[in-house]
Design brief:
Largest sheet: none
Radius of gyration: 16 Å
Helix content: over 70%
Shape: elongated
Number of domains: 1
Order of helices and strands: HH
Strand content: under 5%
Structural class: mainly alpha
Distance between the termini: 27 Å
Number of helices: 2
Number of strands: 0
Length: about 70
């Protein structure tokens, strides 16, 4: 019974960690897009960089939890 509660909390903590990682990656990606060349400051490029940053950060967080 205690192990089930611990595993549930552990899974919850991992989910929160991945969400935080995705948000941080999105902010970093948007910041990179905004500080780049003036040609890349269009809204679609900022969104693209934010999504890419979130995906990379989430994948790194997930892999670091596995390894």
């Amino acid at each position: 019974m205690i192990q089930l509660a611990m595993s549930s909390n552990s899974a919850n903590d991992l989910s929160v960690h991945q969400k935080n990682s995705a948000i941080a990656g999105a902010i970093a990606g948007a910041a990179v897009a905004l500080t780049g060349d003036t040609d890349t400051r269009h809204a679609d490029h900022i969104v693209h960089f934010a999504i890419t940053g979130a995906a990379l950060s989430s994948a790194a967080s997930l892999l670091s939890g596995i390894i």
